[in-house]
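ligand=uridine-5'-diphosphate-glucuronic acid
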Amino acid sequence: MNLAIIGTGYVGLTTGTCFAEVGHNVICVDNDREKVEKLKNGYMPIYEPELEDMILSNVSAGKLSFTTDLAVAVHECEIIFIAVPTPPHADGSVDLSYIEAVSHEIADALRPEHGYRIIVDKSTVPVSTGSKVSEVIRRYAACDVKVDVVSNPEFLREGSAVKDLMNPDRIVIGANSQRAMDLMKRVYQPFSAPIVEVDLSSAELIKHAANSFLALKISYINAVAAVCEKAGADVELVAQGIGMDKRISRHFLNAGLGYGGSCFPKDVKGFINIADQLGAPMYLLKEVEQINARQIERFLDRIREKMWVLRNKRIAVWGIAFKQNTDDVRESVAVKLIRRLAEEGAIVTAYDPKAAETGARALEGVSVTICSDMYECVRDAEVLVVATEWRQFATANLVKVRELMHLPIIFDGRNILHGENAVHAGFEYHSVGRKSLYPER
Ligand code: UGA
């Protein structure tokens, strides 16, 4: 099938590439000329495992192409996916201006000879956006082409986007027309995943409700972690114990510094906002946000409690990205932490395997030295803070780290180091929701 994807961000680029991989002909459209040129020349705008090879092979097989010309894509493709950003406004509502602009452009590009078209919303949007897109098309289309609008939310995670797309738990298709539903099911035929067939509004709500529920799980375990710290219990054991109940599951019960990234903070806010607008306020999610905001404060308090004044303390931070396996630093808790430490006058060094460049941009004007080696980063440090859950931090040579550091103190904000190993290497080991461990004197 011929598919157009408008927007080559994380969702658009990986979705388009995976569609090409399973045999569709895909045209990816972006209005950023420079980005499109780079993609045409095999240069990746983002780091995402497995993506580069898949793009290169599908481009050379003629299944995947890039253009800035939206009209050509509308002309050639019966199904047009919208995957443009939906950033938050200051009040938490979702900025839908990119969706509106693209819908308008699609309407302008429709021609009588095109026949039937499906416009699919892939971006995360508040409920009822689909009907607004339909209105825009009706209002601006210069001819009478039959168009259906569909919601097909994406559930991929950055860092495992290709894997998630190729092996989804489920595919949600929200359509108010059987013709659109049948064609959408053909798009997803090559994927062996159950298809959830629902109406347009339910599909839009599924995405907001799913992300908010995952954020809620994280805040729940972080709130439990705070109790564990006071009670002398171990949040990892608690998570294991409750997670073995299939009704709860162990996934997304990792206590830490809280959730970040371009999705959860924005989507929780967006869901709160639309629920307020609809007169069905989600007070529960306001608490989820507050727990998340408190998590970094609690962690900073514990560092201060240990180190007293942070001014002129040498603090090394491992991790800048908002999570492992990505170079994305949007709403990264690690970035917030680095900024806060620097503001308090600490001498901060930071290291991230992939997010050095993006991190340097996000931290412009902040007094921090970004290192290109994780061991160099800890040289002469008095505290090592682990802020992102990269695997290579979990497997670090802690004896070497100890030799390089000035004082043997670790604050593990992601509970990924092996506490006993840290103690054997001579460290005091502080983590989230667990007792601190100290070497024998
Ligand atoms: C999230 C969802 O997991 C995807 O299903 C969804 O498609 C995506 O948002 C989206 O809406 O586009 P993503 O933001 O890429 O994916 O990353 P996650 O793996 O969900 O992690 C989000 C944040 O939660 C990270 O900061 C991570 O460190 C944190 N986290 C995650 C925890 O603190 N504890 C956990 O147990 C899991």
